[in-house]
Each structure stands twice: as structure tokens, then as C-alpha cells.
Design a protein that fits this description.
Layout lengths: L9 E12 L2 E13 L4 E5 L6 H8 L7 E6 L9 E4 L11 H11 L4 H14 L15 H14 L4 E5 L7 H18 L2 E5 L3 H7 L2 E5 L6 E6 L14 H24 L2
The structure holds adenosine-5'-diphosphate and magnesium ion.
The site of magnesium ion has 2 residues, from helix 1.
Length: 264
């Protein structure tokens, strides 16, 4: 697996999550193990309700683990370990675009001139410099999600956790942001765990795609994506891309059907 050497950046071992359901305990995640190497981009896909968000929240430390362990290797001291980007625009409506992007730096005690400079640099990179003084309600959904993404990146996190960050966007905006995300990742090489329900997006962005089973969520298969980088939207038109897509879909479609039956 990717010639992973030494300690993985994220090590999830035999992770279980049990929720107290209405008809008794409900196993959301069952014996789920996953190692993510430093600098690796890993996507997790699986039918809706299979425990993807639950897993991500546990990695982020936002939810408790019922059993098993999740460890994130420490990097430079004093750094925040991870940053999370959610599907819904989790940005502060009462702060301007630039204040939102600079927020994590403010929390870390970075001086005002420095945090504004860093935030401005990120806004520049994603074409939002002109909107620095706008409030979230004055910009589009795509722009808001860009703000959410660069706000996470401005913290220079060691691990970036993204839960369907482009899920709420229209198809065209989504393509543009996919491209941007790919470009930024290829420059920064952050360790990323990326949840998506888009198979195309998973194949396009990832070094490795993890397929989860319908509830209770288990690891079903992993796929190394050996498409050359840099990639672009045009990568999706290559035969290799279609092969990956078909290979993964042949496994995923059965799980989606199973999940739909469970919900009936
Ligand atoms: N806080 C919660 N309390 C009880 N059940 C939950 C809670 N969060 C999620 N679940 C249940 O756990 C399962 C996995 O949910 P989730 O992780 O959100 O799935 P996914 O992100 O893959 O769609 C679902 O059946 C969901 O209803
Ligand atoms: Mg989810």
C-alpha cells in the first residue's frame, strides 16, 4: 500500500461506533481500520448512512469512539493538528470574508498584520481578493465554500478533513472547485481525508479510494489510483479514468442497493 514507510499520519485501528438507537444500540461503524500516509490524499466513499461522517468526526476529535483507536502523528509542536471543512458553509455570517479566513490565525494569537497578509494570500489564490470585505450573505454558495476551504488551509493544518465540501454546489461550480482543490493540494501536499458521494471526484482527486459497506460501515475495498499528476478535468476523459470508475462502481453499486433496501 503506497510503500508507506514508518508511522502513518493517521492510524485508525478497529474503530467501532455504536449509537443508542430508538430500537436499541445501532452499530454505525464496525471494526474499521485505515492508515493514511503523510501527504496522502485518501477519499472515502460508500452509500449514504454508512458512517462516513461519523468516522470523520471521530478523526477530528468531534465525536467519541466506542472502541478501537485513532491516532494522529504529531508534527511540529504548537500546531493545530487538523482542520475540518464541512458540506454546509460553516463560516461566520457576522464576519467578513477576510476575517473568516483569518479566524484560525486569530485564535492562535498571530498578529493582525500577519494574519491579514496570510488570509489575503489565500483569497488571491482562489480569486476572492476582491471580496475580502464582503459578508457571507453577499457572496454566492461557491464563493462561501471557497472561503470555508481556504479558511481551513490558512491554519496550515497537518491534516485536512473534508466532509463532502463540494456536495452542496451546482455541477459547474463543483468542477471549478475540484480543479482548484487539486491544484492547491498538488502544491501543499497536505494529508487529506476526503468524504464524497461522487465517484468521479474520488477518482480524480485521490491517491487512494476507500470503499465502505452499507450500515454497519465496514471497509469493503481500497483502490490505489495511479493516474499521473498533475491531473485536471481532462483526466476524466482518459481510458484509465474510466477503468477506475467502472472497477469501483461495480463494487459500490451493490452496496448502494443494499443500503436502499435497509431504508425501506
Ligand atoms: N448523533 C447520532 N445519533 C444517532 N445516530 C446517528 C448519529 N449520527 C449518525 N447516526 C447514524 O449513524 C449512521 C451513519 O451516519 P453518518 O456517519 O452520518 O453516515 P454518512 O455520512 O455515511 O451518510 C446513520 O444510520 C445515522 O443515522
Ligand atoms: Mg455524511
Amino acid at each position: 500500500m503506497h510503500g508507506m514507510i514508518g508511522t502513518p499520519k493517521i492510524a485508525a485501528r478497529h474503530v467501532c461506533k455504536v449509537y443508542p438507537g430508538v430500537d436499541g444500540p445501532m452499530v454505525a461503524l464496525d471494526d474499521f481500520s485505515l492508515d493514511v500516509a503523510d501527504g496522502e490524499f485518501v477519499s472515502v466513499i460508500g452509500p449514504s448512512g454508512c458512517g462516513k461522517s461519523t468516522f470523520l468526526r471521530m478523526v477530528a476529535g468531534l465525536d467519541t469512539i466506542s472502541s478501537g483507536t485513532i491516532e494522529i502523528a504529531r508534527g511540529k509542536a504548537g500546531r493545530p493538528l487538523n482542520s475540518v471543512v464541512f458540506q454546509e458553509y460553516a463560516i461566520f455570517p457576522w464576519k467578513t470574508v477576510i476575517e473568516n479566513v483569518a479566524f484560525g490565525l486569530l485564535m492562535r494569537g498571530v498578529s493582525r498584520p500577519e494574519r491579514l497578509a496570510v488570509a489575503r494570500g489565500w483569497l488571491d489564490r482562489v480569486g476572492l481578493a476582491k471580496f475580502a470585505a464582503y459578508y457571507p450573505h453577499q457572496i454566492s454558495g461557491g464563493m462561501k465554500q471557497r472561503v470555508g476551504i481556504v479558511r481551513a488551509l490558512a491554519n496550515d493544518p497537518e491534516v485536512l478533513l473534508m466532509d463532502e465540501p463540494l456536495g452542496a454546489l451546482d455541477a459547474q461550480t463543483r468542477l471549478v472547485l475540484q480543479d482548484e482543490l487539486m491544484r492547491i493540494w498538488e502544491e501543499t501536499r497536505k494529508t487529506v481525508v476526503y468524504i464524497t458521494h461522487s465517484l468521479d471526484e474520488a477518482v480524480l482527486l485521490s491517491d487512494r479510494v476507500i470503499l465502505m459497506s452499507a450500515q454497519p460501515g465496514r471497509l469493503l475495498a481500497t483502490f490505489d489510483i495511479d493516474l499521473p499528476r498533475p491531473r485536471s478535468a481532462a483526466t476524466m476523459n482518459t481510458p484509465r479514468f474510466s477503468e477506475y470508475r467502472e472497477m469501483i462502481w461495480s463494487r459500490l453499486s451493490g452496496e448502494v442497493a443494499r443500503a436502499m433496501e435497509q431504508q425501506q
